[in-house]
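Researcher: We plan to redesign the surface later, but first we want a full-length starting point. Tokens attached.
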């Protein structure tokens, strides 16, 4: 059996680390601008109803991803956006009324 050259192993590990570091940096930058469920053909792969999904074409059952590049995760998974707006308005009214009562 041949001896293990520690310097050669360290050199190869450093090279592998450099490669993976570049991959991670690229993935991290994409995660800020690209929908994580968008595939390379611009179709949505989410297993749930996402607000970024566009209606599928008649001949294709897959939903095209309507992501515009400025991604805000919170709005993508709102299942009832109108209920969310009503709740926000109600909370605002409660706060306003409470402030008014405190100031009386």
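Model: Full-length starting sequence:
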């Amino acid at each position: 059996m041949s001896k293990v050259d520690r310097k050669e192993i360290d050199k190869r590990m450093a090279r592998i680390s450099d490669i993976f570091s570049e991959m991670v940096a690229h993935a991290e930058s994409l995660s800020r601008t690209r929908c994580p469920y968008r595939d390379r053909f611009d179709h949505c792969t989410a297993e749930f109803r996402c607000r970024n999904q566009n209606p599928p074409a008649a001949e294709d059952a897959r939903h095209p991803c309507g992501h515009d590049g400025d991604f805000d995760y919170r709005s993508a998974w709102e299942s009832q956006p109108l209920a969310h707006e009503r709740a926000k308005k109600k909370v605002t009214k409660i706060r306003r009324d409470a402030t008014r009562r405190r100031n009386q």
